[in-house]
Amino acid sequence: MSLAIFDLDNTLLSIDSDHAWGEFLLEQGAVDPESYSEANERFMADYNAGTLDIKAFLEVALKPLAENSPEQLAAWHQQFMAAKIEPHILPKAEELLARHRTRGDVLLIITATNRFITGPIAERLGVDHLIAVEPEVHEGCYTGGITGIPSYQEGKVKRLEQWLEDQDITLEDAWFYSDSHNDLPLLEKIEHPIAVDPDPILRRVAEERQWRIMSLRD
């Protein structure tokens, strides 16, 4: 039994779910159209460049969770899943998950996107284990803050190490599928690092190190 780890955005999905959630909120009129749209695009560009200030991003990204009721958020998320996520679940990604499931591997999604957005997506994909940014909750409502280490860049390594301490699993013979050079700190620690439809930086590194490169979109 091995651990099969998957990035979510632009790996199992053909979009970035965090960015798509921002677009969805704009469509609902739930956020200021000018400032939020500018921030959503700027943070996406920073992420792609590997220069994202994760704390500054989360201050903006989690604010709408604190400004709306759990009931409203749940209703929006249901619409979001149908409109923005379901059309972008890659059939080959589901086949890949199924192959690892058949092998008896433990499936884990690890993502820099927060659990509010990604929890239902992981459930839809049939993946029981999820490491994500953890929004802080007080008395049943989101505060706009986070708990623990953000699972971004080196933070993914730290969060995975914490998770492994609580599981009867090791990284021996583990797999990690990702599209992003932001995941290089974790890819470098895994026996089977696999670049999935990689960004240009990750593609170059994967080619230099002779890592497997694959596509779930062809």
UniProtKB/TrEMBL annotation:
Its EC number is 3.1.3.15. Pathway: Amino-acid biosynthesis; L-histidine biosynthesis; L-histidine from 5-phospho-alpha-D-ribose 1-diphosphate: step 8/9. It is an enzyme of class 3 (hydrolase). Keywords: Hydrolase, Magnesium, Metal-binding. It catalyses: L-histidinol phosphate + H2O = L-histidinol + phosphate. InterPro entries: HAD-like_SerB, HAD-like_sf, HAD_hydro_SerB1, HAD_sf. SUPFAM superfamilies: HAD-like. One of its GO terms (molecular function) is metal ion binding. CDD domains: HAD_PGPPase. Catalyzes the dephosphorylation of histidinol-phosphate to histidinol, the direct precursor of histidine. PANTHER family: PHOSPHATASE RV3661-RELATED, PHOSPHOSERINE PHOSPHATASE. Belongs to the HAD-like hydrolase superfamily. SerB family. This is Histidinol-phosphatase. The lineage of its organism: Bacteria, Pseudomonadati, Pseudomonadota, Gammaproteobacteria, Oceanospirillales.
